[in-house]
Design a protein that fits this description.
Blueprint lengths: L1 H15 L1 H6 L2 H22 L7 H17 L4 H14 L9 H10 L6 H12 L10 H14 L3
Helix pairs in contact: 1-4, 1-7, 3-4, 3-5, 4-6, 6-8, 7-8
């Protein structure tokens, strides 16, 4: 349980620390985001929703949020490199036909308060409930925005 709390605390740091986002390469961020998008897409397709009691799902959402944050105020060169890696990381689930919509969806995540999701995840696992409260408006907004983003695929 302690390992989970430490992992989520690290996730919170990664999703909220712009220094780490800027230091990571566009290629690694795009690849990680693509892999996470593919994983969450498969979960959503199989289960019809995103299980927020599943640590892997929460980590993948954190990776998507990290990628979204890296795109805020990004240069065109960064965005181009990110896009190529996003396509590769998703095993072509994201492709040249839908990458613009996916990038738009990722950038839209920067317009909502996603910090509530990260805080809720950290609290849930730190106090042992292992359940994010989905009735929190900001948590719902984050999940809804990611689900909408996945609709472009």
């Amino acid at each position: 349980m302690k390992r989970i709390a430490v992992g989520l605390a690290s996730l919170l740091l990664l999703t909220s620390c712009s220094i780490l986002q800027k230091a990571a390469s566009a290629s690694s961020l795009g690849g990680n985001t693509g892999t996470a998008i593919s994983a969450i897409y498969n979960v959503l397709k199989a289960a019809g929703g995103i299980d927020l009691s599943n640590l892997t799902n929460i980590i993948n959402i954190g990776k998507i949020l990290t990628g979204a944050g890296a795109l805020s105020n990004a240069t065109q060169a960064f965005t181009d490199e990110f896009s190529t890696a996003l396509i590769n990381g998703s095993n072509n689930l994201v492709n040249s036909g839908n990458v613009a919509k996916v990038l738009s969806g990722l950038k839209a995540l920067n317009n909502i308060d996603t910090s509530a999701f990260s805080e809720a995840a950290t609290k849930a696992y730190a106090n042992g409930t292992q359940q994010i409260q989905q009735n929190d408006a900001n948590v719902n907004a984050t999940v809804k925005a990611i689900t909408s983003l996945l609709g472009a695929l």
